[in-house]
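Weekly sync notes, structure subgroup
Attendees: PM, AL, DS (notes)

Item 1: joint prediction request from the bench team. They want all two components modeled as one assembly rather than separately. Inputs as received:
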Amino acid sequence: MQDNPITSLKSAAYRIRRYALQMGAVQGQGYIGQALGMADILAVAYRHALNYRAADPKWEGRDRFLLSHGHYAIALYAALLEAGIVPEAELDSYGSDDSRLPMSGMATYTPGMEMSGGSLGQGLIIAVGMALGLRQKNNKAFVYNSMSDGELDEGSTWEAALSASHFGLGNIINLIDINNQQADGPSGKMLGFEPLADKWTAFGWFVQRVDGNDLPAVLQAFDAARKHPDPQPRAILFDTLMGKGVPFLERREKNHFISVDAAEWEQAIHFLDNDYFGDSANEQR
Amino acid sequence: MSSANAGKPRLKTSAMIASIASEGQRTVSAPFGHALVELASRRADIVGMTADLGKYTDLHIFAQAFPERFFQMGMAEQLLMGAAGGMAKEGFVPFATTYAVFASRRAYDFIHQVIAEENLNVKIACALPGLTTGYGPSHTATEDIAIFRGVPNLTIVDPCDALDIQQAVPAIAAHQGPVYMRLLRGRVPLVLDEYDYTFELGKAKLLRDGRDVLVISSGILTMRALEVADALQADSIDVAVLHCPTIKPLDQETIIREASRGGRLVVVAENHSAIGGLGEAVAGTLLRAGVAPSFRQIALPDAFLDAGALPTLHDRYGISADAIAESLKSWL
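Output from the run, pasted for the record:
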């Protein structure tokens, strides 16, 4: 990372948001609120924290990144585009027939997608198996699991939480996106999960809770999770804002699946560009 | 209690891990555990995982031999299957063990999505298949095959005896992709060594020929069918037994060929519900091929089965040797 790491992470987050909006525009729909909300976390993951080789997504030494919440695929595709793992030429195929970028993430379709998600509450459990396997092979890679707050409802999440701690799996970093939205309403009201940090701590995890849209805080949390000296699994709880970066989407009545009118996609991209480049954005581009 | 049992001594409920061997039958102790140890001594990628049922699936034999390759996952079947998938992603070949009821009913989505969808190399070996415990519906896996037959990529194996298990273990490990194997544990009967038989994944084998009845069977019902075939010789009834240990993919060619051979009654016998198991798989195969022999099923009823002693229950539900012999005679 040269110069100011935050500046370059900011531009990565901008590009991830822009890719996501472009893909949303292709389909006219998508879990765009989540993608915008998680862009800063993914920018730090793919531009700072993760060890990978873009040209060799199966490289044995890579850090594994599991997208447990398969419906966030649009967000991860944007990050994989930013990382150079998915070529930009494929962006327009998002969610279309025969595309490698289906609406819900599948390992069998997409380079860099480590699991077939979508049946929620499975990622952390897979992470336990992979982390045990890596340890068995004496491979020092990390397993990152990305999950939503809705997945805290699933019992399997807590089976995995117990297990990772039981086995002392310090090679697991669990990223929980707390945007407080799930299909039927605010996550906390569907099945209350607070005090969440206390729960993970009680399960034996090293826990941090930060604003997931505050890049310096996200960066610091990733670094602290990676460098934590004790043999215990690590959780980072990220409070994020759905639609972050596009003011009219941030303000939109908060739904799990934000509806965006046809004309609004361009408008959203325009907002994003203006915010990033300033008013001269259009001339610059 | 059915009146058929009147006057008989009332047997005690079988222990959950009761041996299915009949008195005086030759048995082998823990064939699965020993076969896995043998395999693991040749293959470093084999690991064993269980959900608090190592002892009751004979995986403890492996755990003792290879403690560093054994993973106790606790009483968490979703975790067991999902983590086995994770292990397979890292290049290992996990043998994951629990009871058939828990794998099929409790961990189904993890087998479906984590393991089968990505065609991961996980071997799921599950004890107490069908009616092999007297504990009642909580432990009686009457519909595990019905549940798993619809899962793409998943191979399903229902071995008959100790020899079948010994030979199936390396065979399913050599197969690339997920396998569900019904497991007999503890003192397991040895029967097939008396026949010219070797286990081949995906193959049905004719163990004995006969003019009157063709029994197509899997699992312990093959053992019963062989017993019945011997017994019915006294009544001049000639019974052929086609053992079909691989339920999926089914050896359709052999089944169609044998069922097409002249005028025999075709009976499918399985330690499973009449719904969705080998019987319906064979029926569909024959009907699609335009082969329509007289057809009967020996299978467990579509019901929550009683608790009790295994011999009583096998009689009651028509899968004891006596009950099978009676059924065959009544159908001829």
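Discussion: Residues 77-89 of chain B form the longest helix (13 residues).
Action: AL to compare against the crosslinking data before next sync.
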